[in-house]
Amino acid sequence: MPDPDIEQLLARIQAHLSLDREIEHDLLEEIRSHLEDAAAAAQAQGSDKTAALAETAAHFGLEEAGAELQGVHAGWGTADAVIAAGLPVLCALALRWLVFTPNGTALGWQQVLVRPAFWVVALAALLVPLLKFERWRYALVSWGFFWMMTIVFALGSAVRW
Amino acid sequence: MPLQDQIRKGSTEILILSLLAEEPMYGYQITQELRQRSGGYFEMKEGLLYPTLHRMTQAGWLTSEWRPAGGARRRKYYAITEAGGRVLSEQTAEWQTFAQKLFHLLGASAKAGNTA
Questions:
Q1: How is chain A split into domains, by residue range?
Q2: Residue B8 belongs to what domain range?
Q3: What value of ipTM does the predicted structure carry?
Q4: Which of A119, B39, B44, B67 is deepest in the core (most CB within 10 A)?
Q5: What is the domain-level CATH number for residue B24?
Q6: More confident: B38 or A103
Q7: How does DSSP assign A76-96, residue by residue?
Q8: In 3D, which of A65, A66, A33 has the Cα closest to residue B46?
Q9: Which of B26, B51, B75 is the closest to A69 by Cβ?
Q10: What is this structure's pTM?
Q11: Three-state SS for A120?
């Protein structure tokens, strides 16, 4: 059960944050652990809970920390999301130009699957976000979108693109 | 900013790297180790440790992982990477050179002052 007094201190940090929800959650969980340890240490040295929390807040620098953390993390969640959205589209376009016939007719799926270029693009759609991004779910979304586009192309073999 | 604060601020990264070269640690542990080992000389606003840790992680000098801390609590432990080890070696050499040159100059200035 979270300590409401610690949560009040965290709220002073959170007031300076405007980040991706998961990044913010992780930051606050890390700092919550620190504040709990610091308050417990102050109480172990004889301070009552109110004094321990005040001392902890003063030593921590809540507002300054919040502002600095915002500066460090701002933009990362958004940048990752933009690249994660754009990457599968790029891979699908690469797929269309590398694998399919010049007149735009999609090859049969058996022919597509034996082409090395297809697997290079498929792996890139998975590995680039998986290795680059903090959130592995972006890699799965990217890969899922790539396979969806591949199936659409393969099923539409009679369609000229 | 007073000179003492400038020096302390400029040495934060190398101090963190040197601690983590011994073993992985979590944030509160790092602040306490810095304070205790320096006799209180390196005592920083504890919250400002975290932006530094996160910048160093983004730069590839550190990695981090969550570990259980009793009950539902977790702590994020930081460990030095190979790249961080190289940075530590380079910065340690730089600080040693800086200190040598500084004390050499200070020694020379003191002698000049005594003979003047």
A1: 4-73, 76-155
A2: 3-115
A3: 0.85
A4: B44
A5: 1.10.10.10
A6: B38
A7: HHHHHHHHHHHHHHHHHHHHH
A8: A65
A9: B51
A10: 0.71
A11: helix
